[in-house]
Amino acid sequence: MARNASLSGYLEFLPTERLTELHVLDTLRHVFEIHGFSSLETRAVETMDTLLQKGEIDKEIYAVSRIHQDERAGKEAKLALRFDNTVPFARYVTENAGHLAFPFRRYQIQKVWRGERPQAGRFREFSQADIDIVGDGALPFRCDVEIAVVMARALEALPIGDFTLRVNNRKLSEGFYRTIGINDTAAVLRIVDKLEKIGPDRVAQELIDTLGASPRQAQSALDLAQIRTVDGSFAAKVRELVGEDVTALLNEGLTELSELMSELNARVPGRAVADLSIARGLDYYTGTVIETTLHGHEELGSVCSGGRYESLASKGKRVFPGVGLSIGVTRLLSALLNSGELAASRSVPTVVYVTLRSAEDWGAAQDIADKLRSRGISAEVALSAEKFGKQIKYADRRGIPFVWFTDDDGRHEVKDIRSGEQSEAHPSHWAPPAEDLNPQIIRKTENL
Amino acid sequence: MARNASLSGYLEFLPTERLTELHVLDTLRHVFEIHGFSSLETRAVETMDTLLQKGEIDKEIYAVSRIHQDERAGKEAKLALRFDNTVPFARYVTENAGHLAFPFRRYQIQKVWRGERPQAGRFREFSQADIDIVGDGALPFRCDVEIAVVMARALEALPIGDFTLRVNNRKLSEGFYRTIGINDTAAVLRIVDKLEKIGPDRVAQELIDTLGASPRQAQSALDLAQIRTVDGSFAAKVRELVGEDVTALLNEGLTELSELMSELNARVPGRAVADLSIARGLDYYTGTVIETTLHGHEELGSVCSGGRYESLASKGKRVFPGVGLSIGVTRLLSALLNSGELAASRSVPTVVYVTLRSAEDWGAAQDIADKLRSRGISAEVALSAEKFGKQIKYADRRGIPFVWFTDDDGRHEVKDIRSGEQSEAHPSHWAPPAEDLNPQIIRKTENL
């Protein structure tokens, strides 16, 4: 990871780093699948029209075109690489609605591309891991709970340390702003979203300057944004700010967020905070909104974000509401690899390196390796009968934990390179300790 | 798979099809990893310069560019999507040579893009699964054997039925053509490569017309191409054709192919044929060449191809020889899905669907599901307390095999939807039959 990418913004892992990434991706997949989420992949390209529907991120889009245009070119749609997994998923849902069973739970772990200016922790190609539940017409609020719980469990299962889901609800925010007399709630959300970046004073000033809010309204907005509770007590604080004047929308938001906090505290204790500063500037969220802070890596911003959108997609009069969260896998992983916090114990899947006494032993050595492989133990055979010291060094350089020897009488011994311990073994019975079967992913917190 | 792609040449799977694809990818990964191959991924884009080095396939390349060019644009390299996994891997090896341990075994399963005219079984985005072994300076011939054996085992592990590795050796072909007096061996290989497409008569004519071969030389070339043996007896047939006149190069080719056939017959019996018609038109192969026919799907052409190249990559005076094979996963898979030969038993990973008696039971039902999940059993909870018939239908529609019921006294029962069998169960102890834990991939050969 000290290496420079040969193409700015495009990260490529070395084998050891890739093993760590694989561990992370496998773990996410396992958690998603035991909760009943189906895997899905969409094509890398979308039509430009599909991508520009949301209108706001055209600057980052990579266009794709055949370098040898021909007579077909004029008839073909302009294409571009996807910049997230949500827009392609929405398109996929409308196209395949007749073949899907709703509510539809899917996970999607794919690369996305953005032509952003490359900088630390920002890549032009990166992986996102999304889960969403999509309904046909309606989707119970319980799906918000389910999504938040599943993602918290996924993050808990990763070797990334402590994190906090910061949860809020758009209905609560919008209901509150309307209650205090600010009606351009989309604008106020965009301004409050900058709180961590520009601080409370400038947020207040912007609310006054841009929206014509009174100083008192601006102060109320800031008061709301300062509410952070680890339980349901945020509701009383909000009611304190607005007095008796609780609108239906605000009430609905309070009820939803209370239910979400209560379920999160029951199912993934200590992982969630009701943080009423979370605004998520984007227009399409309509209820639950979530951001996630990784402790000790606050510089990364939110490592997992998302929420509820009443209209993920629509097809004629048919509307598909959804709720989802997305982990920025590459950004998360590259930070932990760069800091030395995460590492794999070896650079290859191999558990056993079978040595050669003579060049003619290669076939017999492959037979030994095959006996190990048939029991799921990854094995590799030396390519030439160099001195044993050199053969051991080959294994050691890759972090392969065990080396296999066979003597002239056909007796087998296996050596643990790390301890130097050597003992008799049989290729049909010997097995490594369970923790050596796969590369170990080591989290070194002393580096923090 | 009866659906039309919304973008011509871009295939997207439905959840059930994706489960089949995942099974295939997981199986390949397992076989590659137990043989000590490291996972690797390279970026989707390469510089145009890198891709055009080989010079011949520029027509199919997809260029990539930011739609909002700015002052940086002029300084940035022109980019394009990769069209295979070999060129990016070669670039990766030279860039990271100092960080890799040679010989380096890697597998790489990634999508590639080609702007070809879409047609049945030809896609513009498709997955390739590659394995290669790369050496630094030298690479023993045993690596050819290893690659062929590992790939044959990978194909054997897939639910795709019988296949044949058709193996040949460039040294044998080149040595033979030189021996009979044809010196433009690259040209003759390109012509002989068309044998299956245009037939022996037109190949002979082309050899005569284009290369000025005599009718006797053309006949000799055809005689060679007709040699097919399941064992090492091809060598005697070749010697019969050339008489005493065996050059060193021809001899080397015969020796290598004999060793390869002997090892393949020992390690993956019945999977290989020495087929001296296999030429592989590309310039960079220098020894072993392999194509693979899937029985009953000869229309697919070769489903797994590759070979030996003495210079996969080079860096100054440093040369990296390699040997590798590549499976065209998407083409293979789409053919088997389309014909109905392959299918998954369900569309979701879920094993158990936990029903609700009343809306208030949701939390308790999640507790039951969590007990199952903690033991690796994928479970989903109903979102609302509809009639049981409706809840069962929900599970049935997705192919979920088991439905869970809890009565008012807290007694649990689990029902196998397929058999209708219902029995008492406990969420901390009950487990499904092993074959139901993951979706089953079913191969229906009666469709053949």
TrEMBL record, chains A, B:
Its main location: cytoplasm. The keyword Nucleotide-binding applies. It comes from the Bacteria. Residues 24-349 form the Aminoacyl-transfer RNA synthetases class-II family profile domain. L-histidine binds at D84, N85, T86, R114, Q128, D132, R280, Y284, Y285. It catalyses: tRNA(His) + L-histidine + ATP = L-histidyl-tRNA(His) + AMP + diphosphate + H(+). This is Histidine--tRNA ligase.
